[in-house]
Amino acid sequence: MPKRALAQKRPFLLLSVAAALAFYYLRASDVPELWLIPLKGSAVGLLAVYAYMRHSSPDAHLLAWAMAAAALGDMGIMFDRTIGALLFFAFHVLALGVFLRNRRPALTKTQSWVVGLTLILTPAIAYFFPYDRTMALPTAFYALALGAMASGAWASSFPRYRVGAGAMLFLLSDMLLFAEMGPLSGSDVPQYLVWPIYYLGQFLICIGVITTLRKRDPELRVVQGGRETAH
């Protein structure tokens, strides 16, 4: 595989990490929030570009669309929580599609329990978090998609210590957001922990899926002079 091709793709990961760190630290500064919105979106948005450029399979492109939806959600939630939730719901559906297309042939009993409990307990726990009970059902409905995504990742043939763990970190970050509507209302814990946990989860999901796809099919799309060539 040409080193030049690798050099052209890896900077997207480096830029993504840089954007994530910059957003985390600059949001506590005097930088206007309006300037932080595109910076926040670019962190996962660059993961979407990486996924799309790194492999030309339908699974990689579906993951790229999922990451793009999440990036829009990262920006949308700074305007309106409902808009952000709808965009992240789209992420969960698209990511679940990737995981279902790559199901593990068989699960052990323990793995089946993890998958089942994650799917059931995620919306059940989320339902009881909001103090405003009018938000209980919408939160549980969103959490059902969240739990399905995490369960799908755990049951997929992708590495559990990357993709499965990444999905569980995403789940944890959202649980902290749900808790912010209830038990952690007024706490600084979500403010400090949600973003790094969420971003690390997305990063692990992205590199885990793409690395696995490249091992299965080492095709690499390289764009040179407006033409696409496969290596």
Summarize the structure.
With 231 residues, this protein is mainly α.
Task: Describe what you observe in this structure.
The protein is mostly helical. It has one domain. The chain contains nine helices and two strands; from the N terminus they run αααααααααββ. The protein has a two-stranded antiparallel sheet. β1 and β2 form a beta hairpin. α3 runs antiparallel to α4 and α4 packs antiparallel against α5. The C terminus is likely disordered. It is a multi-pass membrane protein. Belongs to the TMEM86 family. It is found in: Membrane.
Distance between the termini: 7 Å
Portion in helices: over 70%
- State the low-pLDDT regions, or none: 222-231
User: Radius of gyration in whole Å, from Cα?
Assistant: 18 Å
Q: Report strand order across the widest sheet.
A: 1-2
From N to C, what is the helix and strand string?
HHHHHHHHHEE
Shape: globular
Topology summary:
Elements: H1 3-9, H2 11-26, H3 33-54, H4 58-76, H5 81-101, H6 109-128, H7 136-155, H8 160-180, H9 189-216, E1 221-224, E2 227-230
Antiparallel strand pairs: 1-2
